[in-house]
């Protein structure tokens, strides 16, 4: 899997977790997010976690990126921690509450289901929509 695909899945997993628990901050770990991404590999063995593998490293950097981009707030830990408590920022909540015509329910409620329930292509498409709308959201504030 390419880095951008891993990033997309990690974004969806993190935002889905934050949406499910909103407004209560939720524990996000690079091990959990990396393992969620690796579940899409046919040979994934959950008993063998190596935080040096790309999926776990990308999960760590995705948490940092989502924080810097203003989608989530960290209430405990920092961007370099292995475990943080995170909640959606107002920007993240507004974007995840959007209801596109192409799906039933909000983007956030669909991301919270996970890629296994809605399909990896739909999941990644929703992440693309959130990130695209985030750019528009930012531009509207300037």
How big is the Rg?
A: 14 Å
Q: Order of strands in the sheet with the most strands?
A: 1-3-2
Q: What is the count of helical runs?
A: 7
Low-confidence stretches at least 5 residues in length (pLDDT < 50)?
A: none
Proportion in β-strands? 5-15%
The description of the largest β-sheet is:
3 strands, antiparallel
Q: What global shape is seen? A: globular
Q: Report the average pLDDT across residues.
A: 85
SS class: mainly alpha
Write up this protein.
By secondary structure, the chain is mainly alpha-helical. The chain has one domain (3-141). 58% of the residues lie in helices and 11% in strands. The protein is built from 7 helices and 3 strands, in the order αβααββαααα. It has a 3-stranded antiparallel beta sheet. Helix 1 (3-21) crosses helix 7, helix 2 crosses helix 3 and helix 4 crosses helix 7 (120-141). The model has no long low-confidence stretch (mean pLDDT 85).
What's the helix and strand layout?
Elements: H1 3-21, E1 26-29, H2 30-38, H3 54-68, E2 72-76, E3 83-88, H4 90-96, H5 107-113, H6 115-118, H7 120-141
Antiparallel strand pairs: 1-3, 2-3
Question: Quick gist of this model?
Answer:
The protein is mainly alpha-helical and 142 residues long. The chain is built from seven helices and three strands.
Core attributes:
142 residues, mainly alpha, single chain
């Amino acid at each position: 899997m390419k880095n951008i695909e891993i990033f997309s899945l990690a974004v969806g997993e993190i935002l889905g977790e934050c949406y499910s628990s909103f407004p209560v901050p939720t524990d996000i770990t690079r091990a959990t997010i990396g393992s969620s991404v690796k579940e899409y590999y046919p040979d994934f063995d959950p008993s063998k976690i190596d935080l040096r593998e790309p999926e776990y490293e990308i999960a760590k950097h995705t948490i940092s990126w989502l924080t810097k981009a203003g989608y989530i707030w960290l209430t405990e830990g920092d961007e370099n921690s292995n475990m943080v408590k995170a909640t959606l920022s107002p920007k993240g909540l507004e974007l995840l509450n959007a209801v596109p015509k192409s799906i039933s329910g909000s983007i956030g409620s669909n991301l919270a289901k996970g890629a296994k329930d809605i399909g990896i292509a739909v999941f990644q498409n929703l992440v693309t929509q959130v990130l695209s709308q985030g750019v528009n959201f930012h531009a509207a504030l300037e």
